[in-house]
């Protein structure tokens, strides 16, 4: 089984990204015959338009993933633009892409609906993503719910290409990540960098504690029993807690007679403990840029080897001369 997924370097990863996506990528790395994960910096160009910022965010994303346990011996980690074959395949796919297919794609549709002008990069975004997927013969693409439409587009384009030129591409399938872990942000809404309500994974401990202490809570009296399942502090606490910590906290909610300050402190403590090993590992990688460079070079070499093979197959199929 070949697994592939990409993640955009559009900001520092937050708890929602970890529990909703990254943790599951890391769990899958041991189970697949081949697991490819990349930082989608070409896609990020549709929103990030400052070179130093894009570079910084790309490196931060790499370090974050390594810190969180992505193991370069078990998975292939690379930066999207280090495999230029992918933009070449994008052109071949574009020539078979109906306008209507992309007009229905949600990122573009939503932008248009808000009356904003979209550029061609955003419009053709799903075709670059299709090339990302098809160029590695990917079978399974683990993604959040919002990306399943894009994986369907990749599958659709593979079918069209195969139909036009003969069997060339493997048909990919999305594996929807468990979204029961929809992580709430500091305002109780879904945690998202667009809502400015995030707790990032590797934020300094002290300012993060302050942020946690400011999480919005209701003003019911302390003694009143409360339903843990509807409280964002409990929902966050549960992500980090052990089984017994969870049971104990639930009982405390149902009993009542506690202050939210206590819960916030407990949340700050468990999250700090939970991410401590990742913090340590990230710091080690950050202090060793040569090793990181080597990991990315090895990842890109592995990815390029496969990409060149599949691109050649596609070129032969459609009659493009190869040097
Ligand atoms: P953001 O909403 O902060 O822009 P992205 O859309 O870049 O985050 O999300 C990257 C991945 O993280 C996606 O697979 C998405 O499903 C997951 N994710 C993001 N926010 C959450 C959340 N609050 N709870 C669960 N998963 C999330
Ligand atoms: N578009 C994806 C996102 O925003 C990132 C991405 C780019 C991707 N290429 C991919 C995900 C290929 C899976 C497979 O989250």
Description:
Helix content is about 55%, strand content about 5%. Strand 4, helix 8 and strand 5 form a beta-alpha-beta unit. The strands form two sheets. A three-stranded parallel beta sheet has the order 1-2-3. It is mainly α and about 325 residues long. It is built from 13 helices and five strands. The site of tryptophan has 13 residues, from strand 1, helix 7 and strand 4.
Strand fraction? 5-15%
Give the termini distance in whole angstroms: 32 Å
Bound molecules: adenosine-5'-diphosphate, tryptophan
Report the average pLDDT across residues: 95
Low-confidence stretches: none
List its traits.
single chain; binds adenosine-5'-diphosphate; 7% strand; mainly alpha; two-stranded parallel ribbon; binds tryptophan; 13 helices; three-stranded parallel β-sheet; 323 residues; 55% helix; 5 strands
In short:
The protein has 323 residues and is mainly α.
SSE layout:
Elements: E1 2-7, H1 15-28, E2 34-39, H2 41-44, H3 51-67, E3 76-79, H4 85-94, H5 99-103, H6 106-113, H7 120-134, E4 140-143, H8 148-165, E5 173-176, H9 205-213, H10 232-240, H11 243-255, H12 260-286, H13 289-318
Parallel strand pairs: 1-2, 2-3, 4-5
Helix pairs in contact: 3-12, 4-7, 4-13, 7-8, 9-12, 10-12
This protein binds adenosine-5'-diphosphate and tryptophan.
């Amino acid at each position: 089984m070949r697994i592939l997924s990409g993640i955009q370097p559009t900001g520092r990863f937050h708890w929602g990204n970890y529990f909703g996506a990254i943790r599951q990528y890391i769990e899958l790395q041991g189970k697949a015959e081949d697991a490819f994960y990349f930082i989608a910096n070409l896609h990020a160009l549709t929103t990030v338009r400052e070179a130093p910022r894009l570079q910084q965010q790309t490196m931060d994303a790499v370090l974050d993933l390594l810190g969180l346990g992505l193991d370069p011996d078990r998975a292939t980690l690379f930066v999207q633009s280090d495999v230029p074959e992918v933009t070449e395949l994008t052109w071949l796919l574009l020539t078979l892409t109906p306008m209507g297919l992309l007009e229905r794609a949600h990122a573009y549709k939503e932008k248009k609906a808000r009356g904003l002008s979209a550029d061609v990069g955003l419009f053709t975004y799903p075709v670059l993503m299709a090339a990302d997927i098809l160029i590695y013969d990917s079978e399974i693409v683990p993604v959040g719910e919002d990306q399943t439409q894009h994986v369907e587009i990749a599958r659709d384009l593979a079918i069209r290409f195969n139909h036009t030129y003969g069997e060339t591409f493997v048909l990919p399938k999305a594996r929807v990540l468990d979204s029961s872990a929809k992580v709430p942000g500091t305002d109780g809404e879904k945690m998202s960098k667009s809502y400015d309500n995030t707790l990032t994974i590797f934020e300094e401990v002290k300012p993060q504690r302050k942020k946690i202490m400011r999480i919005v809570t209701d003003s019911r009296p302390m003694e009143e029993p409360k339903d843990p399942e509807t409280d964002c502090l409990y929902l966050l606490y549960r992500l980090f807690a052990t089984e017994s910590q969870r049971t104990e906290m639930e009982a405390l909610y149902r009993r009542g007679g506690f202050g939210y300050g206590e819960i916030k402190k407990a949340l700050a403590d468990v999250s700090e403990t939970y991410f401590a090993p990742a913090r340590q590992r990230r710091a080690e990688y950050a202090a060793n840029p040569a090793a990181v460079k080597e990991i990315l070079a090895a990842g890109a070499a592995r990815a390029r080897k496969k990409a060149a093979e599949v691109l050649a197959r596609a070129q032969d199929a459609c009659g493009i001369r190869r040097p």
